[in-house]
Amino acid sequence: MGKTTLCGLLAEAWKARLVLEEVEENPFLPLFYRDRKNYAFQTQVCFLLSRHRQQVKLGQLDLFSRKVVADYMFEKDSIFAGINLGENEFALYEKLAAVLARDVPKPDLIIYLQASLDVLLARIARRGRPYEHDMSRSYLEALLNAYNSFFFRLRDTPVLVVNTDSIDFRSRPGDLEGILKAVERHRGGMQTYVSRLADQAR
Question: Fewer Cβ within 10 Å of end Cβ, the chain: N or C?
């Protein structure tokens, strides 16, 4: 089970507003997976603007009266841009992203769902998006390393790291309860949640 599943369950448990990234609305994404070099910049800028629009709307809400659960962070796009764009394109992208980031509210907590490369590949296959069939193992491995590097360096936002290889939030309620308790206990910085139920299920 991945991030969208968990976010839906967290939103339900907390009676929170659920915000999902608009992946399917990016017209360049199928082209990108067929020709990364020629469509990377258009794809990244489209995602960046879409996520900025969503996040600005969140900033206009009364966030003190209702929790918000999002299945992505605004900085996510820069992780992808770092491995997909050439040097000059990335420099231009970073300038645009820095300007847009000024409007974006900071999250109180990021839950980073880790998974091994083989598990990620299996989940992508089950998801069945046609344009993802061209995603190579090497590209996904580069993304995985980029994510780990990003969170290793992150200092200004609390992070809860959860390895999800053997976790099933929907079928095992105890896994979800464990995440909810870990969030309640989180006191800043980077912390790791290890599911005892997952170990027992192996």
Answer: C
